[in-house]
Amino acid sequence: MALLALTMGVIQLMGHAYAWPFWGSMMVLTVIGFWGLARLIFVPSFVTAWTVYGVSLALAYGFGTLNTMTSGYVDGSAMYMVNYAGPSALGRAEGLMLLIVAAMLYIGHIDPNKTIPTEPFTDTERSATLVLLIVVCAGTFIALATGQLGFQGVQNGAGDSALVSPLASLVTSCLTPATALAILAYGTQPGSRTRSLVIFLCLLLALTQMTQGRRLLMFNVLTLLMAFFAVRSAKGFFSPKVIVALLVTVAVVAGASRFFVSMRIASYSLPVDATLAERVEGAVDVITRPEQSGLNEHLEQNQSTRTFVLGYVGELIEAYDKTGRTTQGDLLTLNVAAAMPTAIWPGKWRIISQIGSDETACHAKLGMPAWDAANTVITEGLCDFGWTGMLLYPIAMAGLMTLAVVAVRRTNILIRALVGFATIKSLLGVEGVLTGYIVDLRNTAVLAIAAALLVAIFNWYQKQPLVIHHREQRALRKQRLAELRAGRP
User: Fold this and answer.
1) Of 128, 155, 268, 393, which one has the greatest count of Cβ atoms within 10 A?
2) For residue range 380-436, what is the model confidence (pLDDT) as tens digits?
3) Which string of b and e fits 53-70 if b means at least 16 CB within 10 Å?
4) pTM to 2 decimals?
């Protein structure tokens, strides 16, 4: 698949005709994306930071573009066209995406650092996983109840502070990895009260995603599917229970997506500080009156146009070709400053205020008006250092995620799985800037340290003489009971 992407990318960049190479590139990226997605879910050995990001890019820039293009032709509006890019720039953007995807898949193929460990958990590691899951669940609901974590992932500081809430930031990054970790730890355990508690907590955490955004919900579901089939293997896919569970999951995700959009439409007529209960009430009203609220029209337009993330890349390429100007690393500085805690770098706000945002800094250099665009690591690299940055930024970012996996490869399975699922969740999101990836790594490091402390505490507790005595007595009672059942005197 890497060779296919490379070949089609070269054809796209060399071809001057817009029509067939562009459509061919979309189809190749789409096929690679769905092929890779199936392997990510069913083949744990395929999952590395590189392959996850390569598949995500293929789906976003291949299938996303194909969805918008076909939707535009269906209703005759040609909604896929953009204001500041012509067909040539869009074609080159798609060709460069093919080259980046080819590089990701090839590096992922030779990279031995897999992100999903497959060895069994010990009882101590399972106990630590349960405690960690309870802590994350409690932190999530505290953040929601106190308003620190709001609708669409808004993270509010204390009082009127403009700072991001540390608790909200932490639980946002760790919610999905902790849930996937629990599935991996307890997926092979027979039915018990502990396993039922784990399932209940996982469902509670899944419910909180309904308020955070459709993309986050989808990334959460995909990560959990990878954890599930890492335990059950692809053979378990044909189990009646699994098929029913997957169908229910698809229905729930579709319903949750529709409900989230309804909450967003309802929020337009609500105060900025509206409570979650008020948003839910408004969403119910929107759903029950779709004709008056315009829900169906909003969903149709959003699903057709929102997927066209390639358009912004083409616009930047067109502007860069005309001016040749770059921000020379300003966006990298902005991302590092934004990801650094204020307690460590109090003066970072001066730099952030000077640079502004990705769009204001980049568009000013390129002679374009600023608007809220679909920023990615790729667009940041292009704005910072031109073609070199566009190719190197995604490779450097995936490499940084790989280093996180390498850093914990000698630790226990709990920490390795936690970091692995954190990298998967982050890399599934293409529409994310460097700040988001750095913050996710930082927060995952905090959770990994907490997990290491929990395992150390449980190991210390298990070595206490009284605990050993009780464990031995319990084993003797079980042995004696088994002998009595077998009819031995």
Assistant:
1) 128
2) 999 999 889 999 999 999 999 999 999 888 888 889 999 999 999 889 888 878 888
3) bbbbbbbbbbbbbbbbbe
4) 0.86
Amino acid letter for position 160: D
How is residue 42 written in tokens?
């069913």
145 close to 136: Cβ distance less than 8 angstroms: no
Q: What are phi and psi of 149, to 5 degrees?
A: -115, 115
| b/e map 252-279, b = 16+ CB within 10 Å | ebeebbbbbbbbbbbbeeeeeebeeeeb
Query: Residue 70 and residue 77: Cα distance in Å, rounded?
Result: 11
Of 53-62, 160-169, 214-223, 271-280, where does the model show the most confidence?
A: 53-62
How many CB atoms are located within 10 Å of the residue 436 CB?
18
DSSP code for 62: I
Decide: 99 and 9 in contact? Cβ < 8 Å: yes
What Å distances lie between residue 394 and 54, 165, 336, 387, CA to CA?
10, 28, 16, 12
Length of the chain: 489
Would you say residue 58 has pLDDT above 90?
yes
Phi-psi region of 365 (alpha: psi -120 to 50; beta: other; left: phi over 0): alpha
Amino acid residing at 352:
I
